[in-house]
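protien #1 (seq + structre)
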Amino acid sequence: MNRKLLTILLISFVIAGGCAFLVYRIVSARMSSARPVLTTRVVAAASDIKLGTVLAANDLTTVEIQGTLPKGVILKPEGAIGRGVLSDLYQGEPILDSRLASSGSGGGLAATIPQGMRACAVKVDQVVGVAGFVTPGMRVDVLASGNPPNAANSSEGTMTKTILQNIAVLSAGTDIQKDAEGKPQQVQVVNLLVTPDQAQTLSLAASELKIQLVLRNPLDTKVAQVSSMAMGQMFGAPGLQPHVRRTPRSVPKVFTIEVINGASSSQEKFKSPEAKQ
């Protein structure tokens, strides 16, 4: 066979193979784009839902999620209706089982309290409440200021002590209470998540002392060693200088003196002035 003919046939086969591969790629891409993507319809919030709300049917909707589902996502509305919300939900957000209280536990603040913990309400004002910046989920330290029981016999005066540290805020808002004249007034109330022992400490301090909340970084969980501060210490009162107790030096009552005379020696004893008295 002619060499020229062989070269033409070889080039033709290469071109035909390239065209076939190109057609295969185009057809495969179109077929894969036309293939339906698997989606799953899950329960989501129909609108913004506040903490403590008991979910009803009109609070829920459904959305489609592609691919792997989040862990604990609720697939049917029956699994969410009648359960309290443990944290704020936003419109279109898929509802997870961990964001809801157990069935039958109801709603409100009580459903958000973990087992073994307590919610203790503290009445504060705008300044004590860190100018309104104390919001649910933040962490605070609790300071108590007042006169200690032995203040009458002490020159220290008013004292401030950090009684609790790294305490979570459950809720913050206003409440209607009556003043000394019986008139209604709005007061700031902050609910703190504490243990039973911490609840006793906080309740005792709130009944007799002024409570101050100190905002802290949520990532800073270290409990610092903080000593109490007195008003006299702040202004450097001279009466608060540490008292040094001096121990009197003991003086021997009898002195013994050795007298050496040549090769002989003798001892003479003398009484001290204190011993004579």
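ok now protien #2
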Amino acid sequence: MATIKLENLIKTYGDVEVLHNLNGEIEDGEFVVVVGPSGCGKSTLLRMIAGLEKITSGEISIGNKIVNDLEPADRDIAMVFQNYALYPHMSVRQNMGYGLKIRKIEKQEIERRVHEAAEILGINEYLDRKPRQLSGGQRQRVAMGRAIVRDPQVFLFDEPLSNLDAKLRVQMRLEIRKLQKRLNVTSIYVTHDQVEAMTLGDRLMVLNNGVVEQFGTPIELYDKPKTIFVAGFIGSPAMNFIPAECTEKNISLCNGKKIEKNIKYKGKILIGIRPEHLEEDKKGNIKIVIQMVEQLGSNSLLHGILEDTNIEIVASLSGHVTAKAGSIVSFSAKEPNIHVFNPETDKRLG
């Protein structure tokens, strides 16, 4: 196990700067998820930690040892890729033990580690099969088994579930989390799926255009997003945003309706309210012209636009809700669930 420190990391390709002065510390035994949209630099960051990409400037340390100039094989890490990277001509047993074999570990020790990992992952019965004889989920278990047998200081996961179907992804992410808890190995997991990030990580590092927007627990990011980007990226369905103006007593929405919010600020603002925090209220001033209703079983999503505007709003209500297209439904939100942002700086207010 090891602490990972990222200090003032910069990565450039020619004149293009991909990562901008990135800092962060992953604690010993912690599971950190790096999340963000495609092209934000998350996979580049993971490959820099692994030693597969050179660092333009800054330092990476693993277990109090600076690893900038170390080869990947000397960093005591194990990486799980999204395409499994299994040798098709080798059996599961051979795939899992190959890394140990080339390190000239004794045959008996390799066999012991392979069987131990196979037992943990529930793939004992597949040890003599070839990868082509396995399902996607089974192949991913083999890829994780190959990482486990190395007994590394750090696990690195590069979108390992992206090739699996939705149901299997849910199952596998639970297995990965239980596995990491059991082994207690420092882990960094890259994904663009914010639901996956919220369910897996002890902490989340949200990247946007090579910049860390926020680094904190899933609940911190959900309850108190620091920027408009984090507020809109974390949560499903995404947060609703409404332009408004702040006065001494209340907030005036862009359509002239007033809502109460105690905040010491005057001027143009952007308020954010999550769909699940909109409450049906006949006296509410957040009036939505309904366009469509999605029935999801346990809850319903009401899609529409804010009255007298073209601003799209989604409300999530529990149970089965019926509302005709064109009808107007009134909502309100409790004060703690109304987020206020400065549209010029993109930063949270209050």
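Residues 30 and 112 are 27 Å apart (CA to CA).
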